[in-house]
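Is magnesium ion placement plausible here? Inputs below.
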Amino acid sequence: MSKIIAITNQKGGVGKTTTSINLGASLATLGKKVLLVDIDPQGNTTSGVGINKADVVHCIYDVIINDVHPKDAICKSEIENLDIIPATIQLAGAEIELVPTISREIRLKKSIQLVKHLYDYVLIDCPPSLGILTVNSLTAADSVIIPIQCEYYALEGLSQLLNTVRLVQKHLNTNLQIEGVLLTMLDARTNLGIQVIEEVKKYFQEKVYQTIIPRNVRLSEAPSHGKPIITYDAKSKGAEVYLDLAKEVITVD
Ligand code: ADP
Ligand code: MG
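Reply from A.M.:
I modeled the complex. Tokens:
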């Protein structure tokens, strides 16, 4: 059975893209077949797995707006078992172009349904907003992973996110679950990080992953080389923790 997970938080810079790339690559390394779906117009997941956007023939925009079959948009990454439907800047127009279209909230869902049987996991990297692309992602997904940066105001904005999740559950996707909450970018040298962990655990309880992602320079360097951490520096702390996270995600199923 395949599982579709949206990686979402409308705050930018909390680790959604880093988690999509590296959870995806780690699951693939553990032998799972993984499809990344990049639905952020910035396309950082796309370049982060080594796809040159200039070479992309069909991107997620073509799939959800122009009815291109998702199979025709799938690209292979350098990692075995890891494929991606890329995003290019074309997608920036989609938020507006989708507004007057029929079944605008379920377009991504319909497309993913056509290919999900080929994969164990489909991970959707959401944009930093609660707009129509994120609603499409939540409608397509079985569950969400919410990355939360271990910083001041960590919980700020989460009530809006949870409200959007509830609205999608009510109107579009009754079965949507919270897969897990992932604490990211922990700076172990500060007390603040520890406080945030406690606060988030109080709020989300057992939904919080035991794996906590520390700040790790190698994780921030890897994207500029177009590589997930596991191929950029397999011995780094970043590679180790994302592998731990992948094992945790697999255990839940
Ligand atoms: P989002 O997709 O939520 O906007 P990103 O995954 O792009 O967030 O992360 C924002 C920035 O922080 C990027 O430059 C990324 O390389 C960096 N980053 C993400 N996670 C870590 C980490 N654990 N350690 C160090 N840098 C990180
Ligand atoms: Mg991102």
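Short version: The longest helix spans residues 237-252.
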